[in-house]
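Researcher: Structure prediction, please.
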Amino acid sequence: MNLHQRKISAIAKNMLTWFSQNARDLPWRRTRDPYAIWVSEIMLQQTQVKTVLPFWERWIRELPTIESVARARSQKIHKLWEGLGYYTRVRNLQKAAQMILQKHDGKFPKRFEDILALPGIGRYTAGAISSIAFNRPAPILDGNVMRVLTRIFGIAENPREKETNHRLWQMAEELVLCSKNQNQNSKSACSHLNQSLMELGALVCTPRNPQCAACPAKKLCIAFKESRVAELPNLGKRETATARTFVAFVIERDGQFLVRRRPAGVVNAHLWEFPNMEILSDKRAGKDEGDANGHASLARAARELGLAFHDARPICTIKHSITRYRMTLDAFRIELKKTPRFPDGVWLSYAKLDSLPLTSAHRKILCAVGAKTA
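Model: Predicted structure follows.
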């Protein structure tokens, strides 16, 4: 056994011991049901555990089987997902459930290749489900695992570059295979090894202020030995965030509000929202902004939506982010002078609108409207 193999063996052993003593008690860890594990992995994509917990519990309660997901109405799955964001995930989840009914008799597939072929599942997610649900030695590599491995092995190259990324996948595979070989009679070694890497990255080997003193791999970690922890992983220059400004109008008529459902193929597809549009900056719009308060821009936005702008009253300002965009959404109550030209617009009561899936920002607007009219 060479030096690298000995290091892999020691890391695998230390990680399994550490995980057995430090693993968080999460509901999807109390089951080997591949459906429940699959749902958790999809929800955890780009979303923190503390956010996912109530969503996962509600989802499993409302849709306890693959068949129930496959046959659920679009409105129901979007409502259950409301607030988690990245809604393509839930649409792919339903497509995958439908595929499982058609191709696998409603049973979640065990073969890695079949899992990978499901909509919305990439190499990482397929590896996570395969190892956690079926204890298969499938490697995983997400942001947390990438950070752990680049630090332990002192990898200075950008882990997203093809060659380096391939090298990291190989290391991840060596670790999970080693755990299987070390614990041949165990029914959870592969599952626990992969989860230990994710857990270490989430709790100890964090992007900022890592808790190196508590790390089970500190004696083997090159970054720790060489005081390079803060430098790794080397992800290159972060893309500058782009600021965007939107305006939304809350229009009420006889106790009902004008809203629309976002079309397929766009961000937040199939969710509901109030009439809104983006206000371009001077440079992007190629126009004068108007007065200091942006009154001209608001009036222009109202006209383009077919609204007669008059005495708009501010409701709230919502700030949120989607990928590299930093959005500001200003919501106004507007007096209705004529029927607006709003494609696919419908009038709904507050109670009806409250029961539908809204985008996160527009849900906050609705809550603000409710607070002001209560």
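Model: The longest strand covers residues 313-322.
Researcher: Thanks, that helps.
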